[in-house]
Design a protein that fits this description.
The protein is mostly helical and 166 residues long. The protein contains 5 helices and no strands. The protein has one domain: Four Helix Bundle (Hemerythrin (Met), subunit A), CATH 1.20.120. The radius of gyration is 18 Å and the shape is flat.
C-alpha cells in the first residue's frame, strides 16, 4: 500500500499490525512466554519496521530513497545494539526486575516501539514530509544507538571486572 501511495489504508494496516502485536504480547504474558515466541516477535518487529520505511522509498524513490536508506541504516544500529546487549546480558545472567515479563533483558533508548509507531503515523499522515521526518528520526536512532553502546559497554565491562574478582 505504501509503495502505491495508499497512505491512509497503509496507516490502518500499520496500526492493525501493532495492535495484533500488542495483543500477542499480552496473551503471551497471561499464558506463558517462550524463547521461541520472543525470538519470533522481535525478528518480525524489525522486519516490519524496515518494510514500512522501504514502502516509502518505493512510493517516491527520487524524493524518499536516500532518507529511507539512512533510516534503515540507523535501524540496524538500534537493533544490533539492542539485541547484542540482550545476548551478552543473558549469557552473564544480568537482568532487570522491571523486565520479568520479557523474553530477554535489553537496554532502553530514545527510539523504541512507541516512538517508531508514532513516526510511522506521521509518515502516513504527512507523506510529503517523509524525508524531513525520516532524517529527524534517524538522528533519534543514532542517539539511541550511541547511548545503548555506551551504557551496554560500561555495564558489561563492570560485569567482566566482577567476574575476574570472584
Amino acid at each position: 500500500m505504501l509503495a502505491f501511495e495508499l497512505y491512509l489504508p497503509a496507516l490502518a494496516a500499520i496500526l492493525c499490525n501493532r495492535l495484533m502485536d500488542g495483543l500477542d504480547d499480552a496473551l503471551a504474558r497471561i499464558t506463558q512466554t517462550s524463547d521461541a515466541g520472543g525470538y519470533l516477535d522481535i525478528t518480525l518487529d524489525f522486519i516490519f519496521y524496515s518494510a514500512v520505511v522501504l514502502g516509502f522509498a518505493f512510493a517516491d524513490p527520487e524524493k524518499n530513497a536516500l532518507m529511507a536508506s539512512l533510516l534503515i541504516f540507523t535501524f540496524v544500529g538500534t537493533g544490533s545494539s539492542f539485541l547484542g546487549y540482550a545476548i551478552v546480558a543473558q549469557k552473564k545472567g544480568l537482568s532487570d526486575p522491571d523486565s520479568s515479563n520479557k523474553s530477554f533483558y535489553y537496554l532502553n533508548g530514545l527510539a523504541e516501539g512507541t516512538e517508531t509507531i508514532a513516526i510511522f503515523v506521521l509518515f502516513c499522515l504527512f507523506p510529503q514530509y517523509f524525508p524531513i521526518l525520516a532524517a529527524f528520526f534517524a538522528v533519534i536512532c543514532i542517539l539511541t544507538t550511541m547511548t545503548r553502546v555506551w551504557a551496554g559497554y560500561q555495564t558489561l565491562r563492570q560485569a567482566d571486572e566482577l567476574d575476574t574478582h570472584q
